[in-house]
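Customer escalation, tier 2.

The customer says the design service returned an amino acid string that "doesn't look like it belongs to this structure." They asked us to rerun it and document both sides in this ticket. The original structure tokens are below, unchanged.
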């Protein structure tokens, strides 16, 4: 198997400028691409990466690692900030670390709003019923704010956890779409009649 990474010449769409060419891998390695966000800045050639819909993984760079913007322009490893949207291209090692060959630092995507009613909830995800159908939401790293109205009409607003969310609660979820089609929540605001 061979994979080329690079960019097309905007003046000649038939010309592809390859910056890295990978040829063949052993059976103990998995080669692939993952989208997600940086969970830490780079230190000593390593950083923590949160793939969309998966647990954090340590990313190890090698001298050949190339960092580019989403447009294909060279960038430095130091430009990766916590929360930077990334696309990682590399090898998953038998130890579980990811040895990366290419890091694409994507443009920050604007947050989308998903409003609806919680159909089901777990510690790391929820399903939101909307007029256009159910939507899955990853909430493992979200900031959750709860607005609760008590029977006496008073309203409280403050930080919460997934344990505070219940099926039937109305929610506003702010986040970005993950590679698996679910939304990765950044903020969840729940409106509940519980106390």
């Amino acid at each position: 198997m061979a994979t080329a990474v690079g960019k097309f010449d905007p003046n000649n769409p038939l010309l592809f400028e390859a910056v890295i060419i990978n040829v063949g891998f052993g059976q103990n390695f998995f080669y692939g691409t993952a989208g997600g966000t940086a969970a830490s800045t780079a230190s000593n050639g390593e950083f923590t990466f949160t793939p969309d819909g998966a647990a954090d993984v340590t990313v190890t760079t090698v001298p050949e690692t190339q960092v580019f913007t989403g447009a294909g322009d060279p960038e430095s490893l130091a430009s990766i900030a916590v929360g930077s949207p990334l696309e990682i291209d590399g090898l998953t090692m038998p130890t579980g670390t990811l040895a990366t060959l290419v890091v694409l630092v994507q443009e920050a995507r604007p947050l989308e709003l998903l409003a609806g009613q919680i159909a089901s909830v777990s510690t790391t995800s929820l399903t939101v019923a909307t007029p256009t159908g159910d939507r899955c939401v990853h909430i493992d790293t979200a900031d959750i704010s709860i607005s609760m109205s008590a029977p006496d009409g008073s309203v409280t607003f403050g930080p919460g956890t997934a344990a505070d969310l219940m099926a039937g609660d109305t929610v506003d979820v702010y986040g970005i779409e993950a590679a698996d089609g679910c939304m990765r929540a950044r903020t969840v605001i729940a409106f509940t009649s519980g106390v």
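Tier 2 assessment: The sequence is consistent with the input. The chain has no helices and 14 strands. Residues 19-29 have pLDDT under 50 and may be disordered. Sent an explanation to the customer and offered a walkthrough call.
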